[in-house]
Specification:
The protein is an all-alpha fold. It has one domain. Helix content is about 80%, strand content about 0%. It has 3 helices and no strands. The model has no long low-confidence stretch (mean pLDDT about 90).
């Protein structure tokens, strides 16, 4: 009973983080702030949701598989965000306040 309650709390909090990340990706003004909101909440939401599912699964092979998936997400999500930010900087988007104007195509 307590494990079920704790599991649902984790799943609900994970859903809230997903919602906040989506809202941040829609409402924030430029690429870098949107990427920041999405990447941070994506990582935290993945931790909470997978931890909630692991509690629901109990100590089984599914729990081990979920732990491996979680470890993979903890390495790949920040790496992907860093690669996206690096690609944006290399393409000419500069971090600045307010709206980012896309660069002119290079010939």
């Amino acid at each position: 009973m307590i494990i079920d309650i704790l599991s649902w709390i984790l799943l609900t909090l994970g859903g809230v983080f997903v919602f906040i990340g989506g809202l941040g990706a829609l409402r924030l003004p430029n690429l870098y702030t949107r990427m920041h909101a999405a990447s941070l909440t994506d990582t935290m939401a993945a931790i909470l949701i997978i931890a909630g599912i692991m509690l629901q699964a109990g100590f089984t092979l599914a729990t081990v598989k979920l732990a491996v998936i979680l470890a993979f997400l903890m390495f790949s999500s920040p790496t992907a965000s860093n690669a996206l930010a690096s690609a944006a900087i290399l393409s000419g988007y500069q971090p600045q306040e307010g709206e980012v104007i896309p660069p002119e195509p290079k010939e």
